[in-house]
């Protein structure tokens, strides 16, 4: 056992003040001997029933008593897999090397990973920066490999950046806003390092990244969960950082919905793609970060106030999402038959969606068994597109009920050709074309049909799919997806995204050596190898919440 492993455990006190009421409880693991010998069994040898973490009785408990807690694989890279009984895929070593090359240092300390190191690309744009969202899978890879230091440094550096005054022209941004990205400027003569950050004021389109703060909170929990080091989240700086992020999204206004109103381009999809309003990508991250914050906020005077607000918001948000964003065969049929112009509380068609606005493709796409959270819901507008990140995060955060989670996996299986094709995973489905593309994207040449954010395939999403598969007890789906990625990723030099209806072509303007494609692959591999890592990024169904009304066939099958 190496030093890093032990370090993580030493800081854990049994009387922690951070309550982790709703999910994998790390403290329970601490008195149990860690049987690393178990890791010698290959993942494939384990029975499927063992893999149904969260959904089958005892699944999780089995893991927790058998495996080391998430984050303590502790093996030196790339030897991680060599200690197992099966031969590691040759890509794993290459991926670790590439990931290490992407590390960015500030005054000698590792603080993050650069978005892409593509020497062949003519324009660097901002790909030489550390993006908060892009670092997330890198952080998981390091945590899973027992290297939490870089993650801690990153959390503290970005927290420091949050404290900066942020302006776009003469307008001051909210205090809690987290940067989309930052860069370390090295002065070789003066031998100094300085930081610059982008909160949206330099970003194409000048949009603030709503997702950054959410990823930050979710990562703080993953770090805490993985290392057992509660002291970081408990610092007054981290507590304040969380509260500032939360006050941005819990403030009262003219909203009639508990969902968070957003500008287009405020997430991973960072250019105009018609996701303004209440995009699923943000709502799922919002929900997850509220739950993560709830488990880490102290019950002191300031913390208590936020805890109360979070609990109320979660209650409403969960209901709203599960009821109005959920689409399956039955629900589609109901919307198809909706009456319009209903007034008063008795309205069935609450948002006055006109059935004629349902796009033709949904009728073919919707399987009899299966369902998903649609892209957006607002007055008279439903965006029926499928978004991978939002649906995977809905599973991981338990925004989806266990039945809904199963239905999402059913949909992925039955629409494999469309959603996975030759390269996992389509960021959104289907693509927007012709006139609609002109109006919705503003004629964006990067987001042409089946490219980039407009129906492109993003290897980084593999880790989210894998995590969702493990959580729902369907690892064979992840295995299939990883096999596909392994036929291409290394050979193609780890592209940022693929183009085409089935994702066969390296993306038009895709960077090579895109760090999150590399890290996403490693995380997917490590999770399949040791599913107990899932605990870092998964939250169990809140037992106090009653399941929502059953409405459709796919919820029950
Ligand atoms: C692109 C992606 C964005 C990512 C950035 C850096 O702009 O759309 O999600 O963070 O590249 O990789």
UniProtKB/TrEMBL annotation:
The keyword Ligase does not apply. Residues 67-86 are annotated as: Disordered. One of its GO terms (biological process) is sucrose catabolic process. The keyword Hydrolase applies. Its EC number is 3.2.1.26. It catalyses: Hydrolysis of terminal non-reducing beta-D-fructofuranoside residues in beta-D-fructofuranosides. Keywords: Carbohydrate metabolism, Glycosidase, Hydrolase. Belongs to the glycosyl hydrolase 100 family. This is Alkaline/neutral invertase.
């Amino acid at each position: 056992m190496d030093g890093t492993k032990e370090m993580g455990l030493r800081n854990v006190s049994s009387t922690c003040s951070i309550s982790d009421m709703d999910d994998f409880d790390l403290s329970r693991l601490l008195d149990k001997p860690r049987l690393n010998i178990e890791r010698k069994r290959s993942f494939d040898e384990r029975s499927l029933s063992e893999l149904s973490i969260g959904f089958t009785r005892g699944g999780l408990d089995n893991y927790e008593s058998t495996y080391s807690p998430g984050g303590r694989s502790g093996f030196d890279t790339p030897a991680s897999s060599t200690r197992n009984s099966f031969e590691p895929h040759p890509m794993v070593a290459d991926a670790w090397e590439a990931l290490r090359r992407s590390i960015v240092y500030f005054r000698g300390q590792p603080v993050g990973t650069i978005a892409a190191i593509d020497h062949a690309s003519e324009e660097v744009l901002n790909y030489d920066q550390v993006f908060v969202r892009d670092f997330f899978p890198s952080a998981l890879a390091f945590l899973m490999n027992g290297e939490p230091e870089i993650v801690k440094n990153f959390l503290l550096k970005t927290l420091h950046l949050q404290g900066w005054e942020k302006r776009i022209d003469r307008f001051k941004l909210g205090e809690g806003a987290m940067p989309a990205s930052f860069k370390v400027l090295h002065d070789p003569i003066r031998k100094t390092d300085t930081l610059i950050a982008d909160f949206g004021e330099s970003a194409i389109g000048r949009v603030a990244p709503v997702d950054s703060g959410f990823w930050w909170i979710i990562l703080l929990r993953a770090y805490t969960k993985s290392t057992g080091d509660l002291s970081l989240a408990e610092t007054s700086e981290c507590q304040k950082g969380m509260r500032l992020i939360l006050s941005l999204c819990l403030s009262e206004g003219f909203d009639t919905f508990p969902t968070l109103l957003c500008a287009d381009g405020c997430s991973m999809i960072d250019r105009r793609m018609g996701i303004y309003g209440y995009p699923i990508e943000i709502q799922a991250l919002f929900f997850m970060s509220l739950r993560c914050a709830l488990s880490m906020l102290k019950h002191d005077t300031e913390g208590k106030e936020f805890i109360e607000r979070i609990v109320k918001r979660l209650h409403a948000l969960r209901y709203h999402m599960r009821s109005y964003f959920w689409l399956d065969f039955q629900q589609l049929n109901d919307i198809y038959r909706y009456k319009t112009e209903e007034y008063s509380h008795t309205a069935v068609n609450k948002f006055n969606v006109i059935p004629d606005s349902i796009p033709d493709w949904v009728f073919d796409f919707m399987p009899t068994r299966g369902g998903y959270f649609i892209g957006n819901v607002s007055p008279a507008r439903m965006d029926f597109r499928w978004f991978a990140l939002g649906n995977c995060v809905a599973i991981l955060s338990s925004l989806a009920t266990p039945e809904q989670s199963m239905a999402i996996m059913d949909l992925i299986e039955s629409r494999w050709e469309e959603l996975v094709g030759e390269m996992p995973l389509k960021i959104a489905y289907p693509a927007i074309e012709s006139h609609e593309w002109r109006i919705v994207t503003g004629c964006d040449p990067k987001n042409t049909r089946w490219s980039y954010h407009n129906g492109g395939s993003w290897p980084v999403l593999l880790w989210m799919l894998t995590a969702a598969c493990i959580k729902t007890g369907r690892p064979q789906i992840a295995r299939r997806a990883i096999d596909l990625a392994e036929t291409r990723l290394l050979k193609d030099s780890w592209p940022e995204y693929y183009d085409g209806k089935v994702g066969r072509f390296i993306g038009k303007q895709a960077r090579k050596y895109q760090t999150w494609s590399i890290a996403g692959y490693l995380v997917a591999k490590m999770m399949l190898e040791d599913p107990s890592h899932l605990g870092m990024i998964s939250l169990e169904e809140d037992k106090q919440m009653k399941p929502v009304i059953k409405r459709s066939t796919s919820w029950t099958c």
